[in-house]
Amino acid sequence: MNTTRIRIIYIILLVCGCPMMAGATYGYLSLRKAMNTYQPTTGIIEHIEKRKVPRHRKSRYEYIKCISYHTPQYDQLHTYTKDFIPFKFLKDSITVYYHPLHPREVKIPGAESFIWTFLFIIGGGCFFMGILIMKQH
Questions:
Q1: In this model, does residue 135 exceed pLDDT 90?
Q2: pLDDT for 95-119, tens place per residue?
Q3: DSSP string, 65-95
Q4: Which is more confidently placed, 137 or 59?
Q5: What are phi and psi of 118, to 5 degrees?
Q6: Residue whose C-alpha is closest to residue 82's, from 39, 121, 53, 103
Q7: C-alpha R_g of the chain
Q8: What is the per-residue pLDDT for 4?
Q9: N or C: which end of the chain has fewer CB within 10 A?
Q10: Quick count: other Cβ atoms within 10 Å of Cβ 9?
């Protein structure tokens, strides 16, 4: 390969890797901030609904999970999420953080941390591949 192609490749890798890692870091920080202000409780996955969603040329499936959680002020509440929660199935318990003043506003740290970790790994891989290519040429 000629040097201009290599230069374009490592610039693209660096330009893609930096925003991915920055976005993942921002996601982690916002999750940590929410964990400081929100109240933790244990939620139980009560129901999982599998819906077929028609897309162009292909049908996709989305899984909607009904999670029930207990709050001292409002007793038993439910929330629905389409988030990917790794290795959690029906009747499993998960950690749920809810806002004390708005208890229907919830964060599920297991799902969010999975997304941010995945984004950070992909971004870090792009960034370090760009650095390696740049050092070799």
A1: no
A2: 999 999 999 999 888 888 888 999 9
A3: EEEEEEETTTEEEEEEE----TT--TT-EEE
A4: 59
A5: -60, -45
A6: 53
A7: 20
A8: 86
A9: N
A10: 16
Could you give the CA distance from residue 72 to residue 9 in angstroms, rounded to a whole number? 55
The residues, any chain, with a CB within 8 Å of residue 56's CB and separated by 6 or more, are none
Convert the pLDDT of each residue in 14-56 to its tens digit.
999 999 999 999 999 998 988 899 999 999 999 999 888 888 8
First vs last Cα of the chain: how many Å apart? 11
Q: Which of 111, 59, 106, 105 is nearest to 82 (CA)?
A: 111
What is the identity of the amino acid at 129? Answer: M
CA distance 45 to 111: 13
Length, in residues, of the chain: 137
Under a CB-based contact definition with an 8 Å cutoff, are residues 79 and 104 in contact?
yes
Q: Residue 67 in contact with residue 49, Cβ under 8 Å?
A: no
